[in-house]
Design a protein that fits this description.
Length: 356
């Protein structure tokens, strides 16, 4: 069993100590042969790539799309009303998240293709088996086009124009580095926000008091989103390279000796949240670790908050009187806290059917 670092304070300390617990590794080794950037790098390389892509994630860059997010949410909710009975993940959460990404990245032509991949790009071929071929084919195509049809017009550029023109220390980045950035943009956070939107609907259907409170207190949205993300902890664990394997190539390392930062244990630490297994949007706001911590904290936090906030505004303004069409099919998981006590949390929503 691999070593795990558990507990709120313990994970925070390890997450910011990149010199001991290095992110200089390649993950998803079964489906890709390049590193996600800037995620799988340490400073100063991590810092250079993070600064290069940060303009895509700034709050101002995302907030200008709010009206489009809300229009998309309204369209999907209206479609759900017309249909009568829907499955939230497939009919609401997935198309909403994909639609928002096409808006942010200026790639409306990719909506149907990205939607067809489902919630996880690594199972995009539809067989249920992990395979990187579908994503790789797409990345080859879009970067071939971006490099052969250079567009430097900031008003018409799409995300791949932007990524293909990034320079680090005055030099154009390599194709594998473009792919590493694109992988984060397309795979990182995709299933996270889908799970978040599904979880919000699941909670609001069963909690009229919270619905009414939020409808009157929009300033509580970010606190609610934060509590939901803590509760769901969509990224349970993350690998780090311990000192004994620093300086070795990926081929020389044994991933079984990597250390795991256990974010579930951090977000369910009973010293911080005594009733951690209860979802409570009114609790005191304490920073969770569902978006990581330190230099490697998630760049997509702004995207998550703006997308979820826009969705909440629309659905609460005209609550569609949804009810569970049948009992939700939720896959629960178990883990351990730092003292070895069990933690029970939602791994995924397998099915959430609702009716008007």
């Amino acid at each position: 069993m691999r070593e795990e670092i558990r507990g709120y304070r313990e994970v925070r300390e390890a997450a910011k100590d990149f010199e001991t617990y290095s992110s200089d590794l390649q993950g998803d080794r079964d489906v890709r042969n390049y590193r996600q950037l800037p995620l799988e790098a340490d400073p100063p390389r991590h810092t250079a790539f993070r600064e290069a892509v940060q303009p895509l994630f700034m709050s101002d860059a995302i907030s200008k799309h709010t009206a489009k997010f809300e229009a998309l949410a309204q369209k999907l909710i209206d479609n759900a009303k017309a249909k009568g009975t829907i499955e939230v993940g497939k009919d609401i959460a997935l198309p909403y998240v994909i639609g928002c990404l096409t808006i942010i990245y200026n790639r409306p032509q990719d909506y149907d293709e990205w939607l067809a991949w489902g919630p996880d790009v690594w199972t995009a071929d539809g067989t249920g088996k992990r395979d990187g071929a579908t994503l790789q084919s797409y990345l080859d195509r879009v970067f071939d086009h971006a490099e052969s049809n250079v567009n430097r017009d900031l008003d018409t550029q799409d995300v791949w124009d932007f990524v293909s023109q990034i320079e680090i220390e005055g030099k154009p980045i390599a194709r594998t580095e473009m792919q590493g950035i694109a992988n984060v943009l397309l795979a990182g956070g995709r299933d996270t926000v889908i799970k978040l939107i599904t979880g919000l609907i699941w909670h609001l259907i069963g909690n009229q008091a919270d619905r009414e409170f939020l409808n009157e207190n929009h300033n509580w949205f970010n606190r609610t989103i934060g509590e939901m993300v803590r509760y769901l902890s969509p990224l349970p664990k993350m690998e780090r390279v311990p000192p004994a394997q620093h300086g070795l190539s990926d081929e020389e390392r044994d991933p079984q000796n990597y250390v795991l930062l256990n974010f579930v244990s951090a977000n369910y630490d009973r010293e911080i949240w005594p009733d951690a297994e209860r979802l409570d949007i009114h609790r005191d706001r304490i920073p969770h670790l569902a978006f990581g911590f330190g230099r490697h904290s998630c760049m997509g936090m702004n995207i998550t908050e703006h997308e979820a906030g826009a969705f909440l505004r629309v659905i609460l303004a005209n609550w569609p009187s949804w009810q569970f069409a049948r009992d939700p099919e939720i896959e629960w998981a178990q883990d351990l806290d730092k003292d070895g006590n069990p933690i029970r949390y939602i791994d995924r929503f397998n099915s959430l059917e609702v009716s008007v």
